[in-house]
Design a protein that fits this description.
Elements: H1 3-53, E1 56-61, E2 64-66, E3 71-76, E4 78-86, E5 88-94, E6 97-102, E7 105-113, E8 117-120, E9 126-130, E10 133-141, E11 144-153, E12 156-160, E13 168-171, E14 174-181, H2 186-189, E15 192-203, H3 204-210, E16 216-224, H4 236-244, E17 249-258, E18 261-271, E19 277-286, E20 290-291, E21 294-295, H5 300-307, H6 312-320, E22 324-325, E23 329-332, E24 335-338, E25 341-342
Antiparallel strand pairs: 1-4, 2-3, 3-6, 4-5, 5-8, 6-7, 7-10, 8-9, 9-12, 10-11, 11-14, 12-13, 13-15, 14-15, 15-16, 16-17, 17-18, 18-19, 19-22, 19-23, 20-21, 23-24, 24-25
């Protein structure tokens, strides 16, 4: 063999070697992706079976798993849930949905869904939720939940009671919600932190309470203790387990702005033995003339001090911010009280 022939063969080897290596890498990656595809399919089937044993039946119409080469995508032409955990059957139907995760970050899942979402609720109630855009993000560490975020553009929620001519409607220009385990209190109390923000909201019940015809902005920050009670869903069994475990919703900040009206509140709310919301909330307001038809304008500071409104440093802070304390808002026996005055609102119904 001549030196010239040997040199030519070596040259051809280096010419083709990158393509051979690329083909081997592609074949290896395809194998990894196919394994991930098969694993996702298996986990979905197992998860749906577990849910069915718990009384919740999920249907992902025309389910497909794709996204090759760098993503795993699960698509449903429509998504439906039927649950018997409320006694009466609950059914929820939604439009097309897609969940996406990158192969190298499988614990970060992005969800997008097309509305509307229609629900048949216990006691003949109907609900419809629609939106212009819905996106959600879920972060997992292994199987442990780290945080969840939901963003909606122009959401509209309509609830219809049986025998009721007019439906109750809430709408907003934008809304978002965030949920995460509390770093200090989750291990000892099972506490998760919740943040909700809504802009440009309209709600008939709020208009009846603080009517001025303006759009409302809401900023809520709260902590929910004994949250693992809801690990298997939101249903009467979970609510009762949460109640008996001493669970509560601690509102650390509730700020509502409605035109010239401002309201801030903190407090603790739970469930009583009749399964109704119960608790005490401290409230301070500005620009409020009437609450549920009761005239309070110009009297809030004195009335709050006389009947147990905010005092101390918190009261000074609210005064500096232009807010006047009101008597405490108390939820008791299904009624809403402002100090000793019962507000003329419909009684609170048991949640289950």
């Amino acid at each position: 063999m001549s030196d010239t022939t040997s040199a030519r063969r070596q040259g051809r080897f280096w010419l083709y070697a990158p393509f051979v290596l690329l083909a081997l890498l592609a074949a290896g990656w395809s194998g990894i992706w196919s394994f991930a595809h098969s694993k996702v399919d298996q986990e979905l089937d197992a998860g749906i079976a577990r849910e069915a044993r718990a009384g919740r039946n999920w249907t992902c119409q025309d389910r497909s798993v794709g996204g090759y080469p760098f993503r795993i995508e699960v698509r449903c032409a429509s998504l439906a849930l039927t649950s018997s955990r409320w006694g009466d059957e609950v059914k929820v139907d939604a439009g097309p949905a897609v969940a996406v995760a990158q192969v190298w970050t499988p614990g970060h899942i992005i969800l997008q869904m097309t509305g509307p979402m229609l629900a048949s609720l216990p006691q003949g109630r109907k609900a419809a939720l629609d939106w212009k855009y819905l996106g959600a993000s879920l972060h997992l560490s292994g199987l442990a939940f780290e945080r969840f975020s939901l963003v909606m553009g122009e959401p509209v929620l309509t609830v219809t009671e049986p025998g009721q001519e007019a439906a109750e409607t809430w709408r907003a220009a934008a809304a978002e919600a965030h949920l995460r385990p509390n770093p200090q209190r989750f291990s000892s109390e099972g506490t998760v932190d919740l943040a909700v923000n809504a802009k440009g909201g309209v709600l008939a019940a709020l208009e009846a309470l603080l009517g001025n015809g303006q759009l409302a902005d809401l900023d809520l920050q709260a902590s929910l203790s004994r949250a693992p009670s809801f690990r298997r869903g939101f249903n009467p069994d979970a609510l009762e387990a949460w109640r008996t475990a001493g669970g509560g919703l601690e509102v650390t900040k509730l700020a509502l702005t409605k035109g010239p009206t401002r309201l801030e509140a903190t407090g603790l709310v739970g469930l009583d033995e009749t399964h109704r919301p119960a608790g005490r909330v401290s409230v301070a307001v500005a620009g409020v003339d009437r609450i549920a038809g009761i005239k309070v304008g110009g009297l809030t500071a004195g009335l709050g001090a006389l009947l147990g409104g905010r005092t101390g440093d918190g009261g000074q802070s609210n005064t500096a911010a232009g807010l006047s304390p009101l008597p405490p808002l108390v939820l008791r026996e299904g009624r809403v009280f402002l100090g000793p005055l019962r507000l003329p609102l419909q009684p609170l119904q048991p949640l289950y």
